[in-house]
Structures are given as structure tokens and as C-alpha cells.
Specification:
The protein is α+β, with helices and mostly antiparallel strands. 25% of the residues lie in helices and 25% in strands. Strand 7 and strand 8 form a beta hairpin. The termini are far apart. This is YbaK/EbsC family protein. InterPro entries: YbaK/aa-tRNA-synt-asso_dom_sf, YbaK/aa-tRNA-synth-assoc-dom. It comes from Streptomyces durbertensis.
Length: 186
């Protein structure tokens, strides 16, 4: 565990650390993603927070985080015939994911919806309320709203409900399967 702390670009946190040095604050798949990429390891900070305050609105108020830099990672299921594609979508907390139009059309699906919580947590190996685009199953598509990609720094889940990651929005576009989608959110 790393004792080196750093100052995050926003928020009121007791401390922030390079996420690669705090595997106790991230899901195992996130630890692996950070270990596999020096670019990620250098760019991603983690903050330890109260898991009871992990929901976006409460979190932003408690830790003085502007909602416009908070991002949500949502797992979706797109169905076409008998085939279901699981994917992750990242949008700013001030917007809503356009599942019924943009996501459905992107996958050429008959139907697209939010994945059930138990499926999302089982498939990602992450906790509900902490799902993050870092460390997702490698075959999954990762759709990122253009507004997230252009945000200087965003706050997103760590894979665990008790902590959050802070990283440049553009860094998310370098993740496996990442694709920037204009108007992914409304």
C-alpha cells in the first residue's frame, strides 16, 4: 500500500493516492488493468470515501465534487434475435444515457436496456454503485459520451462502492473496446 498522497483536481477528500498503489481501494480487475498499463497507472488517482454516500447526488454534496465532473458507468444489454451483447456506457452524471435510441441503434439491436444489477455485478466482478470502465471484461464494447472524453478530469467508480477514481476524461478513450459516441447522453 502506498503512503504517497497527492492533491486531486477537485473535491474535498482526506487524501488521494495513485490508484496503482492502493489495491485495497479498487476491484481486482481494476488492479490488473492498472498493472497492465503504465499510462493508466500514472493517470489514475483513487480517493477513499464513505460507501453509504456513494450515490452521485449525495457523494457530490458530501465531497464538494461538481456534478459536471462526475461520470457514471452503466452496464447495458443489447438484444438482437437470440444474441445479447453486454456493454458499458460512460456518461456524465448531469446527463441521461440514451439507451432506447443511441445505444440500440449503435448495436443494431431490437431492444436495449439497463442490465439487471445481479448480471452487471457478476459479469464485471465489481460492486453495484462502483462499476467502472477500468477492468471490464476485455470483449465488452465501451461507449463513452463525447462530453466525458473532453472533460479535463472525471470522477468514476473504482469497482468498489467505498472509493472513487479520478482521471482525465481522455484517458478513458484509451481503454480496450472504447469508442467515443456523440450524443450517447441527453
Amino acid at each position: 500500500m502506498s503512503d504517497a498522497t497527492t492533491t486531486p483536481p477537485f473535491g474535498s477528500f482526506d487524501a488521494a493516492w495513485p490508484a496503482a498503489g492502493r489495491p485495497d481501494l479498487v476491484a481486482p480487475s481494476v488492479t490488473k488493468a492498472l498493472a497492465d498499463s503504465s499510462t493508466l497507472a500514472d493517470a489514475v488517482l483513487v480517493v477513499d470515501t464513505d460507501p453509504a454516500k456513494a450515490d452521485t447526488a449525495v457523494f457530490c454534496e458530501t465531497y464538494d465534487v461538481p456534478a459536471e465532473v462526475s461520470a457514471n458507468c452503466v452496464v447495458v444489454a443489447a438484444r438482437r434475435g437470440q444474441e445479447t451483447t453486454l456493454a458499458a456506457c460512460v456518461v456524465l452524471a448531469t446527463t441521461r444515457l440514451d439507451v432506447n435510441r443511441t445505444v440500440r441503434k449503435h448495436f443494431g439491436a431490437r431492444k436495449a436496456s439497463f442490465a439487471p444489477m445481479d448480471l452487471a455485478t457478476t459479469e464485471t466482478g465489481m460492486e453495484y454503485g462502483g462499476i467502472t470502465p477500468l477492468g471490464l471484461p476485455p470483449a465488452w464494447p465501451l461507449l463513452i459520451d463525447a462530453a466525458v472524453a473532453t472533460t479535463p478530469h472525471v470522477l468514476i467508480g473504482s469497482g468498489l462502492r467505498r472509493a472513487k477514481l479520478i482521471l482525465p476524461g481522455a484517458t478513458l478513450t484509451t481503454l480496450p473496446g472504447a469508442e467515443v459516441i456523440p450524443d450517447l447522453a441527453t
